Amino acid sequence: MVNAYILIQTEVGKAASVAAEVATIPGVISSEDVTGPYDVIVRAEAESVDEMGQLVVARIQNVGGITRTLTCPVVHL
């Protein structure tokens, strides 16, 4: 199982609606709007790195109002 935090920048005024829509996507554990350099932080899980990539590129990045994402996989050192 692969877990990741996905940091999302949105268009002005879109953080709450983006967080709500992303929260409905299968594989998303949590989705919250925040302050700072990013507008939404998502925690997601997938069976593999490839599936995580598909989740981000095919599902999350297609949500309207998103301008940029940064995926941070969780590692156990």
Automatic annotation (TrEMBL):
Segments crossing the lipid bilayer: none
Domain Transcription regulator AsnC/Lrp ligand binding: 6-74
Source domain of life: Bacteria
UniProt protein name: AsnC family protein
